[in-house]
Amino acid sequence: MRRWGRALFAAGVALAASLTGLALLALAIPRAPEVRFPPPEAGNERVVLLAANPIHTDILLPATPDVLARFAFLAGDGLPLDDPRVGAIAVGWGGRAFYTQTPEWRDLTVGALWHSFTYDRSVLHLSLAPALTGEEPGLRRLSLSEPAFQALLRFIDASFQRTPSGAPEILPGFSYGPYDRFYEARGGFNLLFGCNTWTAQALRQAGLTTSLWSPLPPLLLWGLDWHEAKVLG
What we know:
The chain is α+β, with helices and mostly antiparallel strands. The protein has one domain (37-232). Helices cover 36% and strands 24% of the residues. The chain has helices at residues 2-27, 65-70, 73-76, 96-101, 110-117, 146-158, 195-205, 217-227, and strands spanning 30-31, 46-52, 57-62, 88-95, 119-129, 139-144, 180-190, 210-211, 231-232. A hairpin with a 4-residue loop joins strand 2 (46-52) and strand 3. This is Urease-associated protein. It comes from Aureimonas ureilytica. Pfam families: DUF2459.
């Protein structure tokens, strides 16, 4: 048994070292968007915030009338979009088991961790947030032109799995509290394509250049700093 334990430990170390090497190599390689939009005009930009913790990123969309209208289905699912304190809608994509079952680290289970390293169905998590400036810790401010912003919204919209009637398919009974909901999403979650690579793909749809592979938030942010001059500090 000890021999098997040592072998598994060595295999785990080798896998971690290999993935770290691949991530660092991918960081230096730019991945350009399919469409490069013109830079935003002064005073006419659309500001999006990128929220990052050590393992996950969310995209915070401003709660402007057009954005609230696009996400009006949230009101039908019980979220108070008309609350004057709502300043943004946060959108994140991730693995169903880990995302829905782990609101805090103490809630982490072996099953959820296993799914995150192998394969899992994906979900979208939408939550209401207050108005933020982008200067708060853990936030990055992105300035987009109107066409780039609309392309980002279309990508997010296309990420929902929909019911036969065309509405985003909610996961009933799953939320962290009264101001968030989970929805079925398109695509599968695995070790190579996770929440942060989805965020990077969304940003490329908005015309930004990222690193070739961005499995963790620091790699995503470093790639933007390195390859994309439009990111504002």
